[in-house]
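Lab channel / #folding
Pinned by the channel admin:
"Please post every new chain as: sequence first, then the structure tokens as a reply. Keep commentary short and put observations after the output so the thread stays searchable."

First post following the new format, from NK:
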Amino acid sequence: MVMANKKSAKASAKFNSEMFADVPVLQRKWQAAVRPGEKLPHYEDVMLGSLGRLADHIVLLRSVDGVLSVSHAGRYVQTWLNDERWDIPLSALPPDCATALTEAAANARENCRPYLASAHCVRDGLVRTFDVLALPTRSRWGGILVGVYVNERNAQYNLLDTIFSATDEGVLSLAAIRDARGEPADFQIVHLNQGAARLLMQPATELLWRRLSAGGNPLAASSVMSRLRGFVGGGPGGQFEIDSGDRCLRLGVTAFGDMLSLTISDVTALKRRDASFRLLFDNNPMPMWVFDAGTMEFLSVNDAAVQHYGYSREMFLGMTLRQIWPVDEWSVHSAALREIGDVYQSSRDWRHIRADGSEIHVLTFGRKVAFEGRDGYLVAVVDITERRKAEARIAHMAHHDGLTDLPNREFFQERLREALERGRSGNRRVAVMCIDLDLFKNVNDSFGHPMGDRLLKLVAERLREVVRDDNVAARLGGDEFAIVLAADVSPNEASAFAERLIEALSAPYNIDGLEVVIGASIGIALSPGDGTTPEELMRNADMALYRAKSDGGGVHRFFEREMDLQAQRRRDMERDLRAAFSNGEFELHYQPLVSIASDRISGFESLLRWHHPDKGMISPAEFIPVAEDIGLIIQLGEWVLREACAEAVKWPADVKVAVNLSPVQFRSRNLVQAVISALAQSGLSPKRLELEITESIFLAETEANLATLHQLRELGVGISMDDFGTGYSSLSYLRSFPFDKIKIDRSFVKDLAQRPDCGAIVRAISGLGRSLNITTTAEGVETEDQLDWLRAEGCNEVQGFLFSAARPAGEIAALLSGFAERASKAA
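Reply from TO:
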């Protein structure tokens, strides 16, 4: 019988070998049938003729309306398909056969070449492999016919046996042996694979049919035998672990009456990892926990988590994740959990609630783990609360003023842009107010910057009290502030708000017992009429503020289109001024100062003139303030000094020249050096130069200002106070510094003959000058009556149109000559 089986096996092997050799034969037959110039051979040339026994292995396929169907099948193929029908679609065949035929035919048709595929078919637990060779051919009726050769390639094998033999897991079966009382007492190994033999560390031949009580393997331990007896007839089964020296084995048991099926796994590495995990988990200084992937219950927490969150371990293990989430983040937390995979880390920071109710910001890192038979996630927590606070402080500092903590210019413009976008969608107006503090500079100059800074903080507090809701108050820089009224405000409402604001900011401030009083001026622009962008509204509100300041301050003004024209004119003047200086468009005119006693010219006041190439002469009252604003006045002032000294040196030695100093120029650190340079370059005696200053220089009576005056006096230069009597502290200035001359303002001279009070003022100033040995000069003398009054009151000098208007340098010689002739005739 055995010999017969061996002969049969050899015959089968030989047959399969021959059949497998049929594939290249058919491929050569197909290639030989291809005619020159054609891609495919004719069906008759390949499939008809000397196929012989191969005909039983051929199935003919054709496409009908795009669907492949069986046109003819040999007996072998019918057996393989388990179907004898013809003219049926491939979809009606067994799926494993249909898949192989479809793949081979499709590739053969697509490439116009023979195509060899493999089919793996499972029948009654046996795996059989077939070669499937598709041969595409031309049909005389048109289209392509595919002849497919099918034949089994190798010996079949049992699928389950193969799987059990190949797996690293141990698989064995035990039969229970009962004692005289009918109780399970022992077990016999009736089946096992190589994996079981390896894990039990004995050859399979020694284990098969062996009783466990015979010993020699881990299953023979009394504790294991006891557990196994408990499964017999007691339920479906279960699993447990056993220690075998330096290894740990996990047994999975399934019971079938007196039969037990065991799977054996080596979990030694897993146990070691678990021990390492426990060591890392329990003693880690970083808060960590394990939670159930399904229920979100805490399964384990380490000491660091208990300490950091403040919950006891018992409380923690009775909670779910949701209980440490803020309610407003429940949905986003839950959504994030649904999306995580085996490993994750925070894509954002989360808020967690501690036991005392405080919130912390955290980053979480986790991976999926099996914990005590449950699917869970191991999570590590990094507390970034302090980092977030620091980032928030930095972000706040980036958008807020460091001194007052009000929003800064950048943040203000951002909020203004948002308000305008909301206003456009709701057809609502937005008001912008630019605020400038009146007299703030006096506080800074008089009491120093620290006092000024404290005052700005108090101003900011009052702004916060007045500006509420969605409105925003900001500090733009210096003593400039701005407000956005984001609600739909009318002009009347904006006006009323500005009045309340001016009243609030103008109330006295108490700083270290010192009462400080300032004011505020406000410019207002309303969208959309005054602008639709932040830039337009800010620019127009700033122009309105300029008008408010020009009107004396302490008031508010709305933007008007005329202001835009004025601003344009101002910008034009700034541009022209810069060009004028480089183009040499400035010149000096000189108005004589006449000594009343000698009726002779004692000096000339130099007056700056701008001869514009298109607009003609422009008044100093128009361009001097602009020159001060754009920083050109210091250059102009130094040029005037040089020109005036250079011209005066040409005059008689007893004739002086007077030069007006701008307050901006006076505060320049280079003033004294500029005077020295002008005198040195011209050769003019310092005693022939007079410098005229206004009382505004004394508004901040600082040591630096007085030191500059004394330095000029030490040069031998005369110092004159211009417009004396118009300020509220003019007399006190005479005590601060010994002036050489005081000039009586033209406003007193104009009404000298008509108003007794003007005469009294002139009389008092002249008497004061005589008492202090200070020369008095009256400005704006236009009539003989005014001259007679001034002579009678004891004035020393006069100037005005009665004698001459200001003249160019080229006419000075004629003026001097004319006065000299008049004086000689009078003599």
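NK: Residues 1-20 have pLDDT under 50 and may be disordered.
TO: also worth noting, The longest helix spans residues 2-32.
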